[in-house]
Amino acid sequence: MLTHHDLTIPNAIEVFEEVKDTGLKFIGCKDVGLPLDKMKVLFKNMKDAGMTTFLEVVTYSEEEHFSGVKTAISVGADYLIGGMPWFAKKTLSFLRDSKAQIKYFPYIGEIEGHPCILKGEIDYIINNGKEFEKLGVDGINLLLYRYTGDQNKLLDRVARELNLPIIVAGSVDSFEKIKKLVDRNIWAFTIGGAVLERKMASKQTVREEIEAVLNFLKKGV
After folding, report:
1. Domain extent at residue 157
2. What is this structure's pTM?
3. What count of Cα atoms within 13 Å lies in the side-chain half-sphere of residue 8?
4. Domain count, the chain
5. Largest Cα–Cα distance of the chain, in whole Å?
6. Could you tell me if residue 221 is inside a domain?
7. Rounded Cα–Cα distance for residues 13 and 47 (Å)
8. N or C: which end of the chain has fewer CB within 10 A?
9. Residue 188 confidence (pLDDT)
10. Which contacts of 208-215 are long-range, i.e. CB under 8 A and separated by 24 or more positions?
11. How confident is the model at residue 28 (pLDDT cuts 50, 70, 90)?
């Protein structure tokens, strides 16, 4: 993700050019931090490079949320991820009415703050996910490493009890965390600040950081 502290970085277009031929297949950004005209350029460049694109909504009010949804449609994102759980049902209806060819992975649980954190009892989070499965969402966007409770227990239960693809979003900042996700067959994870701050492998460039993560995954963890 071309993001830091839940904002799209202002030089996202330039950073994308640096990393586009590293072997990345999935890439995206947040609904805030970059003007719409630049967002359109960014997504065009990402799609021209043959990548699957993601836009993550991290805003709270209904107006801001649906502005983010409309942005995802406008830029042609392949996936709309995040967005507050209390808007999930209305968002699904909006997407169906718009006939947008976009997959929807909402947050589950109690979301607070910016950058977003996840709160609530694990039973509540799991039941929220099951409720959304019945609604017909395409997957779940889980703030696992921003959870204020037992993260390992939450991961185990999500992997065991939810039947949709899971994206773990936020604070994936170590190879140990990545290994846990791979071991539990988590479909995808987002990573942004950790590579921008060179936390993963202490490399000199963002490109080298991404290559280190990709090499770790290619080795089968």
Report:
1. 3-215
2. 0.95
3. 26
4. 1
5. 47
6. no
7. 13
8. C
9. 97
10. 210/19, 210/22, 210/24, 211/22, 211/23, 213/175, 213/178, 214/22, 214/23, 214/24
11. very high
Tokens 């959870």, residue located: 147
pLDDT-derived band at 114 (thresholds 50, 70, 90) equals confident
7 in a structural domain: yes
Looking at residue 57, its amino acid is V
CATH of the domain at 94: 3.20.20.70
Tokens for 172, please give them. 């994936």
In what helix (H) or strand (E) does residue 202 lie, and over which residues does it extend?
none
Buried b (16+ CB within 10 A) or exposed e, 136-168: ebbbbbbbbbbbeeebeebbebbeeebeebbbb
| Interatomic CA distance for residues 192 and 194, integer angstroms | 6
Residue 43 included in any domain: yes
Query: What does the alpha-carbon distance between residue 203 and residue 216 come to, in Å, rounded to a whole number?
Result: 14
Residue 168 lies in a domain: yes
pLDDT single digits (tens) 54-85: 999 999 999 999 999 999 999 999 999 999 99
pLDDT at 169: 96
